Amino acid sequence: MKTTHTDRSVKFVEWLSADDMHSNSKEWLSELKFIEDEHLFLEDLITSFTLQLIDKKHFSDNKKVIEAVHDFSKENDTLIKIVTKHQKNLKIIVDGIDQPKEEEKYKNEHKKLTLTIHKFLKNYKSLKIKLFDIIKNIKKTQKQKRLIS
User: How confident is residue 14, by pLDDT bands cut at 50, 70 and 90?
Assistant: First the structure.
């Protein structure tokens, strides 16, 4: 049987210490907060190229990417709240009180978050590549028009 990256991530989480889970949560929050700031840049980029983005030829595809940028922003905000809450709930693991059901629930939540965050970051990176490709093509077209003129 072949072990996928996802399977390995889930198995790996089972062995994580409280410190490791806390470290994961801090890293996730850091990345999500960076994306929050980066989103402002993407919004400015979209605003700067609005006229070119609404060009008839590419409007449909560009609109999908722009809507996805907005959707990812909302999802990012939601993930920040979830990870913050998850981070605060780490006390269940470290409080010294034996709560096997709650501890298992926390670890399962951490496994799910590991997969969710990984998938989100992968999809977000793909979206940025699409947006940057669109902007790059717009810039190339503008440059060609200037050279022809």
Answer: low
**Is residue 3 very low, low, confident or very high in pLDDT (cuts 50, 70, 90)?**
very low
Neighbours of 92 (CB within 10 A): 17
- Rounded distance, CA 6 to CA 147, Å? 49
In the chain, where are the structural domains located? 5-148
Q: What is the pLDDT of residue 2?
A: 38
* Residue 79 and residue 117 in contact, taking contact as beta carbons nearer than 8 Å: yes
Question: Which residues are CB-neighbours of 68 under 8 A, at least 6 positions away?
Answer: 127, 130
Residue with tokens 């709560």: 99
- For the chain, give me the number of helices (H) and strands (E)? 6, 0
